[in-house]
Amino acid sequence: MSKKIATKKCCRCKTTKPFTDFYKATKRKDGHQTYCKKCGIARQYHKTEKSKKYMHKWRQSTKGKESIALSVVKIKNQHPRFTMALNAVAHAVADGRLPHINTCCCRHCNNTAVHYHHMAGYGVENQLNVLPLCGKCHRQAHGNSLL
Question: Do 6 and 74 lie in a common domain?
Fold first, then answer.
C-alpha cells in the first residue's frame, strides 16, 4: 500500500506541491499558506522593493518634504537638549575638535563608526562626551544592552 502525501496547488505558480513546500497558516482550513515557500519569498521581496520605491518617490514629493520638515521641527521642539548636543558635535567636527565620524572605528567592534553616542546624556557639560559607534552597537547602546 502506498502512502498518500497531502498536496496543495500554489495560487501564484499554479503548481501542485506537497504541504511541506508551504508555510504554516493556522487560520486557514488546511493549515498552510496559499503561496508555496518559493513564491511567498518572491512576493515578499517584490512588496519590499515596491515599498522602497514608493517611499523614495514620496520623500521627493512636496507633501513628503513638508511632512519630514514638520517631523524634524517637532523633534527639535520636544527634545531641545538632544538637538543642542547634536549641533555641538557637528560644530566640533567642523572646527576639527572631533574627527569626522567616517574616519573613526567603532569602540566596541572595530567596524567603521557611523554615529557619535552621547554616553553621559545630552546636558551642556556632556555634549562632547561621545563615543564613535557603528549602527548596530549604537542601537544596542540605546537598548542598554551594551553600555
Answer: yes
